[in-house]
Amino acid sequence: MSWMSLGVIATGYALQRLLGADNPPNKVIEIKSESLGFLQILARDEAMVLYAPPFNSNDKKTYEIVLQRPHTESNTTSFSLFRSASNQEAEDKFNAFQHRLPLFVSIVNEFYNVSGLQKLSDILSENPSWSITHLVAYFNLVEYISHPKVMQFIDYADHVNCMSPLQLAIKCSNVEMVKALMPLCKMEHLDNNSNSVFHYAAGTTKEILNVSFYKKTLV
Predict the structure, then answer these.
(1) Is residue 49 within 8 Å of residue 65, measured between CB atoms?
(2) Domain of 70, in residue numbers
(3) What are the GO BP annotations of this UniProt entry (predicted)?
(4) Among 128, 130, 149, 217, which residue's beta carbon has the most beta carbons within 10 A?
(5) Does 67 share its domain with 38?
(6) Is residue 54 part of a domain?
C-alpha cells in the first residue's frame, strides 16, 4: 500500500472520529472498516473488538468497541457500539457485552443491524448480569429457545437479582415465551426476595396467571 493510500485512510480515521464525536457514546453507528487498521487491539470476543487509539496520535484519544460484520457479508463497514475517552469506561462496557452480544447476534441474525444492536446494547448496559437466555426471553424470541447455546443457560439466575429467564419472561408478560419455558425450567427457583415464578405471575396479566397456575396443577 502506498504512503498516499495510508494518508487517505489515516485522514478517514480522523474524520470518522470527528463525526462520531457528535453522537452519544452509546449510540450504535455504522463505520468504515478500513480505518480500524490503524488502531491497537486491547481485547477481542469473537467479532467484537475493543480498540485503543493509534500510537503517537495527536487526535483526541478514543477507545472504541466495534462489532465486525459476519464473514459472509461485505466487510467494508462495521458497527461502532461504544466510544469513550476513558480506557476503564470502555473496558467496563466491553465486559458488559462480552460472551453475550457477539454470541446473541450470531444466533439471532435479525439483530445484526444498527436498530437491533442498539436495542441489544442498551439492555445489556442496563442488565450486564443477564445471560443469553435472559436476552432471548426478554425479546420474546421463542423460536430460539431450543438452540444449544440458549438451552445451556435455561435455569441460569442472574447474579444481581437471582432472576431466572422464566421469571423474566413472566415479568415482561411474554406469554408465548412463558409457555415455551415452563416445561424446560425449574419451577421451584426463588429470586433474591424469595419470589417464585408464581409470585411473578401474580403481578402480571390474567393470561400469564392462567398459564402459570395450570402448570402448577400438573406438578
Answers:
(1) yes
(2) 12-110
(3) positive regulation of ceramide biosynthetic process
(4) 130
(5) yes
(6) yes
